[in-house]
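ingest -> validate -> predict -> emit
validate: passed (alphabet ok, no gaps, 317 aa)
predict: started
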Amino acid sequence: MKLVVHHWDADGICSAAIAATSFDKSGISWKNLTPPVGRFELDGRIMEQMSRAGELYFLDLNMIDAVRAIEKPVIFIDHHNQEKVVKAGFEHVNPVLDGNQVPSASWVASDYFSTWNHLSAIGAAGDVGEKLFSTEFGRTAEKILLNHGLTRHDALKVANLMDTNHIMMDRKGVEKSVRFAAFAEPVELLKREEWLKNSIKIEEEIEDVLSGLRITTGMAWIEFSSDFNIISKVARKLVWDQGFNAVAVNRDFNGMAQLYVRFRNPSPLIARLIFEFKAKGFNAGGKDDVMGAVCQKNRVDEAIRIVEEVLGCAYLS
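emit:
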């Protein structure tokens, strides 16, 4: 049995569904799991299934240190900035490490499994947003979608719907979404009732949170407390819809705190932020335009100070 451990967002779901489609065609048994939503860790539930699996796939999960220690065959498929792993039994598939740009893990997974379909583009739309269609990958993405009866607007909508399970902190809902996405007709992705109901609740929460927006030195800062995993969604709205660079802080996320920084364009400041956060012992990661971190609530002010120092701007409370 092959075990697929994947990120909980639309890109992770699409990447896992692409792998599942490939396995199914070959008659290979598989199972998929996601880490606890909002926490990049391999908990007991995953460790138990790992012990039973013959081969492990990690998709769209920037958890190099945790996965490196596993003493089983691993295929690690990703698109985040990370250290290259050279180890027997560890196949590290990440074009970024060779200086090549890709829009999403779904794009990398599609190439790896030679399985290109609407999920390839939907995962990318989930990760890059509308900007995908103005990049070098946009024409290919749109052609793939049209071949499956979908538009770019449909892809963005489906990506948002897929994200509703993890935003609602529904780990099992995320996992069930992989099988549905893998085998449903493309148009059915727009009609999944569970996702549609979730989306209404989430939009209400986001609108309430956005009322706390403040702008300082060209940076959008937003601070809130919510049990919904909406921090990346809030920051993306500020960046994609309003054109800001953004810092979002969730001071009380189910007993923890979250901090998320997203820029309109790639910036070396993001790599510096990730370095500084890790140097101080924070759980942080990201790409060249985004950083996410999780910490104890009593350390969130320390995390904000790091952001202020690196970005050269202050959040005025």
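The CA atoms of residues 1 and 114 lie 20 Å apart.
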